[in-house]
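Re-running the complex after MR caught last week's input typo. The corrected sequence lines follow. Everything else is unchanged.
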Amino acid sequence: MLLNFDRLGWWKYALLGITLLTAAFLLMPIVFIAALSFGSSQWLIFPPPGWTLQWYGELFADPRWLESALTSLKIAVIVTVLSVLLGLVTSFGLVRGSFMFRDALKALFLTPMILPVVVLAVALYAFFLRIGLGGTLTGFVISHLVLALPFSILSISSALEGFDKSIEDAAVLCGASPLEAKIRVTLPAISHGLFSAAVFSFLTSWDEVVVAIFMSSPTLQTLPVKVWATLRQDLTPVVAAASTLLILLTIILMALVAVVRKVLKQ
Amino acid sequence: MSTYSDASGAIMPLPKARRATGFGGVVPALAFVAIFFIAPVAVLLLRSVLEPVPGFGNYAQLIGSATYLKIFANTFIVSGLVTVISLLIGFPVAWALAIMPGRLTSVIFAILLLSMWTNLLARTYAWMVLLQRTGLINKMLIGMGLIDKPLALVNNLTGVTIGMTYIMLPFIILPLYGVIKKIDPSTLQAAALCGANRWQCLTRVLLPLAMPGMAAGALMVFVMSLGYFVTPSLLGGTANMMLAELIAQFVQSLVNWGMGGAAALVLLVVTLSLYTVQLRFFGNQNPGGR
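Corrected-run output:
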């Protein structure tokens, strides 16, 4: 009876109440930021005395915001491509291969997911200082790739594990070369895994703050680093505008994922 | 993957010794991870015992100082509080999600995922504004007559705890949902038939059955909280540092690689040992922490 909603009695309303309050609690900051970004009060008074697009104007008028957004985008795209390619090759090795320590190796590849990011950030910072990659695009790409790759390997391997290899073998028997069979049969069949890998990698890089704080230089910084640096000085509504754009991108990507999942299922 | 031609394997005799296949595929990633992950972390940890002089001086200093001990205490207290509160809120929510009928469930799931994927800085910024002295939360509390003077909710550990709980809730609700969803309703029917009242059903059947999921989720939230950097440093202020911020400060402002490495090793050892406990007892569940 505890697992039957209709037979819970008044407990039903308690559970429902907590759930709705929690949902409101989770949603509140997101809605709040979006509302503030259109509010006319510089002191972030809520509800705002009036509505304005001033903060978006300031955001777009400042070339440094635009520049950091472009830097973020560039890094995220490169990281996504590299992460999917490397994840694909690695997953084939991990899923299809048979060699010593295969499971240990897979666990090793996933470790960056559980390691405190600050440890990795500090370690890479020291390393890049020494070899001259600190504050460079390459440094950013490498450090973001360390964090994105595990998501890629996880998504693509699980898709590949779910794919019946005999279909690929059948293509080879029908005269396709092994590579051709992989490209024309296997890749389309695991495309949902490739797609998740790409989305996760992109968002990992796009949202990354901790490593990026250590990688950035005065001339090269990503959008989150710019937000971080601005936040340490004051709570200007321009940050609310920047945050709203970041949230918007997340919603678009989530909607895209939902649509693609639906299409791939059919 | 030159040895991969199993299609003809049915006709050909099996190779005498088992050969390693597919290793070539993992070589690039292995090289990448070795150079840009294992080596830098290893070097950082080595520096903790080599700099400024070889030995365990850095660790002695870390344990010997009241300032650093307070930071460790802060870190564990906040992580513990965040874990307990997330569990207390998360369990009923996961329970409701597991049994609630209809469209409302999918709306709440969408909210959970949205909040999980919304930029961490954006969410932390929201709390910085909401929790200010003149912020919405204080205004609401005064408006409801619960307090007469604004509370200090930010730049202290209260702020960190609120902000971190907010971030960790989805991470505990989602795994708990999975666990409760898998519980067979007939076990509870059986308990009810045997005369258990609702409260007994909850404390003696449902909670014990959900316990492995709760323990695994709690451990994960605790470990993730220990290593968090962004939210504690923005909501906590300089007087209430946590471990991740201490590491960053050793390296960035003090340029003390020995102490930075030592503090990193402490965080790493605690994190990895708790994950080992989790893997050992509860199996694998693995979103990462910022």
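None of the earlier attempt is carried over here. Chain A touches chain B through 97 residues (CB under 8 Å). Chain A has twelve helices and no strands.
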